[in-house]
Amino acid sequence: xxxxxxxxxxxxxxxxALNAAADSAPAFTMSLTLADGGQRATLAFxxxxxxxxxLEAQSFFPPGKVADYTGFQYLRDNDPDNMGHNTxxxxxxxxxxxxxxxxxxxxxxxxxxxxxxxxINLYGYKRFALMKAFRRLIESDLPAGSTGLKLSNVKQxxxxxxxxxxxxxxxxxxxxxxxxxxLTAEQKAYLDxxxxxxxxxxxxxxxxxxxxxxxxxxxxxxVAVMTYAGDLYSWYAGSLTADVYFCPERxxxxxxxxxxxxxxxxxxxxxxxxxxxxxxxxxxLCDSSKGYVTSSQAAAISSLVNTQRNNLYAGPTNIVQxxxxxxxxxxxxxxxxxxxxxxxxxxLALSGSYGDLDxxxxxxxxxxxxxxxxxxxxxxxxxxxxxxxxxxxxxYADGTxxxxxxxxxxxxxxxxxVDQTILTPFMGDTDYLFLNIPKPVxxxxxxxxxxxxxxxxxxxxxxxxxxxxxxxxxxxxxDPAGNSTFSLTVTQTPVSxxxxxxxxxxxxxxxxxxxGHNPLVKQIQGSLRSDDSAxxxxxxxxxxVTGDQGASASIDFTITVRRLGDITGDGHVTAADRVAWNxxxxxVPSGLDANGAAYTRRHFDLDHDGKISAADRVLLSQVMNGxxxx
Length: 630
Hints:
Radius of gyration: 29 Å
Strand order of the largest sheet: 5-7-10-9
Number of helices: 23
Distance between the termini: 71 Å
Shape: globular
Helix content: 40-55%
Strand content: 5-15%
Number of domains: 2
Structural class: alpha+beta
Largest sheet: 4 strands, antiparallel
Number of strands: 12
């Protein structure tokens, strides 16, 4: 508690310390963020985005707005070269950090990215419930018996989001503290030389100079590592003031404002976003003199500034206060991690309260936006839509024209969601956000086989040192319900006629528990070969995952059981398989198998001993000649 008392002692809401690296005060401060004018323009801009956009646009959300207690937003907003909102800003900061990190330090960031990916994704997916409810509200798509949003349930969903954010923030801070405390004198000197300077003065480390360090990272992992690297620098070079700071749009994130501002910049390195866009476009809804809304409509939008005031910064418990407490706790890890468990518990408790306050504010935002929208005339809606298009269309420096005014795909952060069925559990039923009914308990599962086919096994392969021919089934969970344990069952159904394999009476497999005792992993082994046709063909796997909170999810997968020796995958063991085996032995390219897959060791290692040898050719010949196998 001493840490928090000290934080409150330095937390004068409208007073900001001078930037120690500059002769004048920073351009963007908490006093500017909290000023009525900035808040009014930002809220109006959010309202404009909701009224003229769609659910797809609402979902666009920069990943840097999650776990934002390292001062990166402050660094961006106060770049002395005014490059903070250029698309290359993060790239330049992160590349410099990655450039100096040792392999072991970078490996820690990669591990963190892998470990946090499910949490980060869960946070992004859970946002859809509120976004869908706010869209339903403005479109008057209310469930029977409802007159509007249910405040307690909106706050509960918001609390759950902030609890995820709090855990992500703590885990990052703990690792950042360990890495920063492991920096060598040379590494510190490099970062010290960057402190107090801007984008133009930092070394320009191109992507190809760090490509060897980033090679092999999955896209999601790579994005996370870049974010972490930027955080490391801003936390190292910053202060508590910077950590607490947030930009005005930090808390109204469900309405599509980020899409309006950022969509034209995505994929266009060097594109700069106007820092005046929020103010100029927001004026359309909060300033009747601009000709878009009446004075009463503008007054309704402007009233939100006062409505949110206590929750934001003026009440006995408020967002700025809580952010200061959380940031102070996290920064204490730089000094010592001995009390990290206590810090974690306090951060989560504060994050839950943070979510309650922001949930109530967003309940009020969405309610007023809906009320104003339903008083707009058809002509007003047309003019506001035209304003949106004028902002989101234009011509790039290379002469290419663009128009992003209509968003056509939902996003997980800034990445398009290709398989939109994953969103169904999160927003398929949002009635609970309008009515006094329980929130649905949901579980989302995705499954993957490391190979879509498996050979039958003979007695010799079933007892090989590597185990039988098998494919590994891994189930990934997105768990909004907070289950502690899971059970996984797999049932099989042979596909009549062999299915896509074209021969046999349907595949048969053995489902075996993971040797590493992971309940969400199973080994799918080819059946024991009794003759040349039994147990081959396609096999439908029905996978059911059940959590201890009662939620469950099911997935269907098909795996093909091939004849042992059917290297080409055409359903038969013939001379063509021997040709393919010989080509592989002589390093002659074999092309693709009958399923369009490139040949791998799995195709040719028939006895499953981990190597391709003469023993595999002998086994192939035995099958071709009808000789019984050992």
